[in-house]
Amino acid sequence: MPINISFFLLGLSFGAGPCLASCGPLLISYLAGTRKNVSEGLYSYILFSAARISVYLAIGLLVFLLGRALTAEFLGVISKYVLVSGGGFIICVGALLMAGKKKEKGFCAVLCRRFLEKDKKSIIIFGLIIGLIPCAPLLAAFSYMGLISKDWFTSLTYSFFFGLGTLISPLLVLAGLTGVIPRILADKQAVYGRIFNFICGGILVLLGLQLIRRVF
Fold this sequence. Notes:
Elements: H1 3-15, H2 18-33, H3 38-66, H4 68-99, H5 106-117, H6 120-131, H7 136-148, H8 152-167, H9 170-177, H10 180-186, H11 190-213
């Protein structure tokens, strides 16, 4: 079996396991809370994954150039900043979803337009945050790629096929299914929609707090 296909299959296993566990609660809560339709949910998932995969490419290259120990040390240093700033960003987005009608005026309205209505940047930031705090199995996979790579281009190729495998995940289906939620809520009273937004925002706030807590 070609080694690129092997890394693609490895990425599939990660996409259905560690990546699903780390990305799922964050992404699905956000997509559901912002009421995406099916096509918007899938598009947002692709943007999220593209940002995450771009970080994977950088990590794969770093492992090849610096080795696992130095790369782990480097990620350990920046992860503290990523956890605090990323956690703070996620908390702010969650708070906006929880704000309900209060976000229609003033500074909250500006933030809402920038990060909820025109939210490509939010999705990309989420992908970068998740990519920059890799779990131990993920770092081990990149270490193996770095060890067997003959040159930097080969390392990037392996990382790309691995990242492509993680893209084909149950999250792809879940992201599309979140598009059913706006149709369901459209037939209900507005209060149900506000309660649902509040719950999704609350989940994001808790996830953000968990990220910050990992620093201390």
